Amino acid sequence: MQMAKSILAGTFLLIGAVPQGFAQERLEDAVNAVIQPLMKQQDIAGMAVAITQDGKRHFFNYGVASKDTKATVTDQTLFEIGSVSKTFTATLGAYAQARGKLSLADPAGRHAPELQGSALEHASLLNLATYTPGGLPLQFPDDADRPDRMFGYFKTWKQLYPAGTQRLYSNPSIGLFGYLAARSLGQPFDEAMEKVLMPALGLKHGYLHVPAQQSGRYAQGYAKDGKPVRVGPGALDSEAYGVKISSSDLIRFVEANLHPEKLGADLQQAIGTTHTGFYQVGGMTQGLGWEFYPYPVSLEQLLAGNSPQMALTPQKATLLQPPRPAPDNAWINKTGSTGGFGAYVAFVPGRDMGIVLLANKNYPIEERVKAAHRILTALDSQ
């Protein structure tokens, strides 16, 4: 069954039957009660919300993809998802391991002769993927933020901490992991992502570079001052923050994470690897790309794990030996931002539910987490 109807400031689309025990109107009301005030408070032009529960998808679309064209947001509108891209990068790296092309235990220098003699030569691929190689910064310095200069930067970078002891969230760190993972597969990263991984996951409209024929679906982002902005090029941009995708495809990715048994063997193994905890960082467990918490989880714990302090300052990391698969009752999440977009994804395998929040404004992460927690808690309470 497929049905669409108008609701207040947006549209609602239901794919499949309404989840048993949670009436359509109550789901609609729960989402509207959170998203409409949020958009008004944060002056967000457009949002796409997708929810999955028990294999059924629900789409809620609000506002406009562009203030100039007045094009309305749909479940096919392309949004920048910023660092949620890291979960795709992590999946590609885990897929390369499943295919025997690399091991997370490999030293980075094994896959990059360019790192010979550098502080990163002996850091493991796992260290790069979990932001624990020893203090790589959040961003490349401006003078190194170009593909032809990044290895020069890595070659001269000085370690601040022993590898594996501190987590410092870093685009260059996981970006290098993705770059080397694609190299191990014998392909450039963009090609490996768009032509191998995304199709294997059943995704049809995810891009690193939006093709001209899809440009009309690409939302315009808006900075905090209201000016239009889209993400620009940089070193390892595709690997760290480059995915543009619709809520329809992103919720499919969530469902692939909820039900990897529907995928091929290599991808099943890859997703299992991304759902494995490798370091404990305060109340958060660092997986591969994803971060997770015991469920039920308090809002306070989620806010602490997704706080500016967690993202911008070094945090003690405790290696989990052996690594621990995320329990079924785990809240697994990732935030992402670019200059003009804000994204948040969360799912709970044991409850077979997940949510995608996409907006064409970089609004506070705290507000995204609150919104998702409130909606999924309401969904799970029925």
Secondary structure blueprint with pairings:
Blueprint: E1 2-7, E2 10-15, H1 24-42, E3 46-53, E4 56-63, E5 78-80, H2 85-98, H3 125-129, H4 150-156, E6 166-167, H5 171-184, H6 189-200, E7 206-207, E8 221-222, E9 228-229, H7 237-241, E10 244-246, H8 247-258, H9 265-274, E11 276-281, E12 284-286, E13 291-294, H10 299-305, H11 308-312, E14 315-316, E15 318-325, E16 330-338, E17 341-348, E18 353-359, H12 365-380
Antiparallel strand pairs: 1-2, 2-4, 3-4, 3-18, 5-10, 6-14, 7-10, 8-9, 11-12, 11-15, 12-13, 13-16, 16-17, 17-18
Helix pairs in contact: 1-12, 2-5, 2-9
Number of domains: 1
Under CATH, the topology is which?
Answer: Beta-lactamase
CATH homologous superfamily annotation: DD-peptidase/beta-lactamase superfamily
Q: What composes the largest sheet?
A: 11 strands, antiparallel
What string gives the helices and strands in order? EEHEEEHHHEHHEEEHEHHEEEHHEEEEEH
Share of helical residues: 25-40%
Instruction: Let me know the number of strands.
Output: 18
CATH class: Alpha Beta
**Average pLDDT rating:** 94
Strand content: 15-25%
Radius of gyration: 20 Å
Q: Order of strands in the sheet with the most strands?
A: 1-2-4-3-18-17-16-13-12-11-15
